[in-house]
Design goal:
single chain, Acetyltransferase, Sec_Metabolite_Acyltrans, Chloramphenicol Acetyltransferase, transferase activity, 2 domains, three-stranded antiparallel β-sheet, transferase, globular
Length: about 350
């Protein structure tokens, strides 16, 4: 593991130190390792913003002990996730195209110790399920340094036999592919929490309304909550649904208890964006909604919609705002919590 000392300060985020954390076992930096070619669905999200999530805990341990333990456990966790300690690699071909792969060369992952902690990961390298799989494995290593087994990830990418796995992109310069996305309008963000009882009521109503003598399909909790949201909002604009309540976001325990909440930054958000999270209580659900302020105001004043809402958080303060600061793209926001 290597590191450099302190860096910058702004009004809410203070960077204390930056370290490059390498796997605890493996070759030297820059050594040749396995190369993983990216699939079409990996490349589809190459220009997306990073997955950026923050976890809130009730009572973490002393800072120095915490940082030292996180660094050493991250080094061990990377032993099981070589792509996350590697680098994206570009190969230029004679026909004027390029292909992109992950070079598992053990150069390490960046670990930043700051006054506003967060975690970010390239979305092409890791999807939401894999992100939380890694974070939960890391927490297990941190909490139990003597642990000899953790759930092993599936790292192989599948390609049909007898074809070149390198997908040639028709670009000679990657700057032609990766272009800056226009900034969205100022958004208001809300987290809505549904309790288990509220979700059960919505689910029961939805199944009663759709039940016929020839239909055996059952509406799920996920479908019932999104239907409720869509029904109340579809007249205003289309919604872009992201994340999933099935991601194991609360499965990590670094030794000081499970998280009390999960929040994300401004990355990949736009007007009409909805992120669906599992709630802190089993069976509950959180919706992280980003809308222009006028539309958000109409939704919050919708009595029928709010009957099922248990709690509402404005994300213009607290962790959500800190994460937005880290992205250097501040947006106002709110969180809603639905009863189970």
């Amino acid at each position: 593991m290597g590191g450099t000392a302190a860096a910058t300060t702004n009004e809410e985020v203070r960077c204390i130190s930056t370290w490059t954390i390498r796997p605890s076992r493996g070759g030297d930096e820059g050594s040749d390792g396995q190369q993983q070619h990216m699939t079409l669905w990996d490349l589809r999200i190459l220009t997306f913003g990073y997955i950026q999530k923050g976890l809130l805990f009730a009572s973490p341990p002393q800072q120095q002990e915490l940082v030292s333990g996180l660094r050493s456990s991250l080094s061990r966790a990377l032993d099981h996730y070589p792509p996350l300690a590697g680098r994206l690699s570009t190969t230029k071909h004679d026909n004027g195209s390029v292909s992109i792969s992950i070079d598992c060369n053990g150069q390490g992952a960046e670990f930043i110790h700051s006054a506003a902690h967060r975690c970010a990961m390239n979305h092409s390298v890791c999807d939401g399920t894999s992100f939380w799989h890694f974070l939960n494995a890391w927490s297990k290593i941190f909490a139990s340094p003597a642990a000899t087994t953790i759930p092993e990830p599936v790292l192989d990418r599948w390609f049909p036999e007898s074809i070149d796995p390198r997908i040639h992109l028709p670009f000679t310069d990657l700057s032609d592919l990766i272009t800056a996305r226009p900034l969205p309008p100022p958004l208001q963000e809300t987290i809505i929490h549904f309790t288990r009882e509220s979700i059960a009521k919505l689910k029961s109503t939805a199944n009663q309304e759709t039940r016929t003598t020839t239909t055996t399909h059952t509406i799920s909790s996920f479908q019932a909550v999104l239907t409720h949201l869509w029904e109340r909002y579809v007249g205003a604009c289309n919604l872009l649904i992201g994340s999933s309540p099935r991601f194991n976001m609360y499965g990590n325990d670094f030794g000081w208890g499970r998280p009390v909440a999960v929040r994300s930054s401004a990355s990949n958000k736009m007007d009409g964006c909805v992120r669906v999270y599992e709630g802190g209580v089993e069976g509950s659900m959180d919706l992280e909604i980003s809308l222009v302020p006028g539309t958000m105001s109409v939704l919050m004043d919708d009595i029928k919609f709010m009957e099922s809402v248990h709690q509402v958080w404005r994300v213009s303060s607290g962790l959500g705002r800190l994460l937005c600061k880290l992205c250097k793209n501040v947006k106002a926001g709110v969180s809603l919590n639905f009863k189970p």
